[in-house]
Amino acid sequence: MVILSNDQIGKRWGIIKSAIRLSALPTADTNEDKMTNMLKSLLSGRALCWMSGNERKPRTVLITTIAVEEISGTKNLLIYCAHGFEKEKSSTYMDMLEGIRRYAIEKKCDNIISYVYHDDVKGLLEKYGARCEYTLAVFPLN
Predict the structure, then answer these.
(1) Which of 14, 11, 17, 9 is nearest to 83 (CA)?
(2) 3-state SS class at 72
(3) Residue range 100-140, pLDDT digits in tens
């Protein structure tokens, strides 16, 4: 899994946009204006795009950002979205997570966090040590 450069993001924006729409946070709007904001976040470095596979056939796309919880100052690496275009072995996903873990440690993050709402993904993450004990409740306003 590699972090894409701005040039690579531009060339692969169609597939990245598709991955975001298929797996964005439940609180995220993915209309064109919001997708433009997401592209700007990637190009400015506020968010990173990680990809496995090759240029013709990406297998997994992750978007991460560092999110600081302002009251306590806790620094978290947020997995904003994760989408697999192909099914992978669980060990492959855990190798990807290990790369992200090393990056989070390098950036002095306290945690890696992600909103998880698929039971199969929750089970896999719990198997490897994640605590998946919270539920995010969302009241849409529009």
Answers:
(1) 17
(2) coil
(3) 999 999 999 999 988 876 677 777 778 777 787 776 666 66
Provide the residue range defining the domain that includes 116. Answer: 2-127
Helix axes 90-106, 119-127, angle to 10 degrees: 70
Nearest 5°: CA angle at 121, between 6 and 90? 80
Give domain status of residue 135, yes or no. no
Distances (CA, A) of 95 to 1, 91, 92, 121: 9, 6, 5, 15
CA distances to 40, 42, 56, 57 from 80, rounded to whole Å, are 15, 12, 24, 22
Bigger pLDDT: 10 vs 87: 10
Identify whether the C-beta of residue 69 lies closer than 8 Å to the C-beta of residue 76: yes
Which CATH number covers residue 69?
3.40.630.30
Residue 29, SS3?
Answer: coil
